[in-house]
Write a structure and sequence with these properties.
Protein name: DUF2197 domain-containing protein
InterPro entries: DUF2197
Strand content: 5-15%
Helix content: 25-40%
Radius of gyration: 20 Å
Order of helices and strands: EEHH
């Protein structure tokens, strides 16, 4: 197990060193890691803002 740090929430997570993700982080240090919570938060689309129409000719 190797400790990696999430770039968004700065939590330390231990991942198995035999996984593909661990190999990518070792071989390419510029690659970043996101924990599962942050990844799921970014994968869910934001709720669209309701459209409001403002008439400029109102008195």
């Amino acid at each position: 197990m190797i400790p990696v740090k999430c770039i968004i929430c700065d939590t330390t997570v231990h991942i198995d060193e035999n996984t593909v993700e661990a190999k990518r982080l070792r071989n390419n240090p510029i690659r970043t890691f996101m924990c599962d919570d942050c990844k799921s938060r970014l994968d869910t689309p934001k709720q669209p803002q309701p459209f409001t129409y403002h008439d400029s000719k109102e008195n």
